[in-house]
Amino acid sequence: MNKLLSLFTLAIAACSLPAFAQDVQGDALAGSKKNALCIGCHGIKGFHTAFPETHRVPKLSGQSAGYLTAALQAYRSGERKHPSMRAIASTLSAQDMADLAAYYESTGTGASLPAAVAAGSAQADALVARAGCTSCHGANLSAPIAPNYPRIAGQHADYVYVALRAYKTTDKPLIGRANPIMGGIAAQFSNAELKVLADYVGSLPGELQTVQRDRVK
Question: Is 13 exposed, middle or buried (0-12, 13-18, 19+ CB in 10 A)?
């Protein structure tokens, strides 16, 4: 009970913090002209990366702008350990990040989503309840309660799995994510349980998609 209370307290504290670079207003049109470094991976449907293991790169279109900005800041600061993403984020100004985030948020599917997540397997439902996913990511896992939290419904399951494991990784120089909330949550689960959670999240309808640019079709 004390562990769950501590995690809940951390979540409330994080939600009360302003999103990174909140005072910088993003311009979606400007962002559409700044994404040359992004589309090489995130602009190709089904594109896989081999680091730290083979998995699809995340869908960005339709993602929360606040989360994308916060994620880029975390890559630049080293809070998220990923060599190529850190190198790219280090070239971006706060305005660049805000513009790219605004662009990707504006290009989701626009789908009408259910108010709550559909029931999964008994194991998946139990794990979602134990993790408290809906308390931050919304009842349908696509309506986060704070602007710097991500929409996760429909994200690639293999990416979600790698990301969840990264929150558990604390002893690797090039792999890991230092986030006290997600680190505490992910640490409760075995990798097999994280795989079940990731597969369930990936199976849900959501607004996320990969928009493939004409020049890379």
Answer: exposed
Chain-centroid distance, C-alpha 180:
15
Our CA dihedral for 27, 107, 112, 45, rounded to 10 degrees, sits at -160
Asked if residue 89 lies in contact with residue 80, where contact means CB atoms within 8 angstroms, the answer is no
Closest Cα partner for 121 from 206, 193, 205? 193
Number of Cβ within 10 Å of residue 60's Cβ equals 25
In a 10 Å sphere around its CB, with 0-12 CB exposed, 13-18 middle and 19+ buried, how is residue 119 labelled?
A: exposed
CATH code: domain 11-209 is: 1.10.760.10
Q: What's the pTM?
A: 0.89
Say if residues 100 and 35 touch (Cβ distance below 8 Å): yes
Contact 178, 184 (CB under 8 A): no
* Cα–chain center distance at 19: 14
Instruction: Determine the Cα–Cα distance for residues 198 and 124; give it in Å rounded to an integer.
Output: 9
Tens place of pLDDT per residue across the chain (217 aa): 444 444 444 444 444 334 444 589 999 999 999 999 999 999 999 999 999 999 999 999 999 999 999 999 999 999 999 999 999 999 999 999 999 999 999 999 999 999 999 999 999 999 999 999 999 999 999 999 999 999 999 999 999 999 999 999 999 999 999 999 999 999 999 999 999 999 999 999 999 999 997 754 4
Element at 56 (helix H, strand E): strand 55-56
Q: Which residues contact 87 (CB under 8 A, 6 or more apart)?
A: none
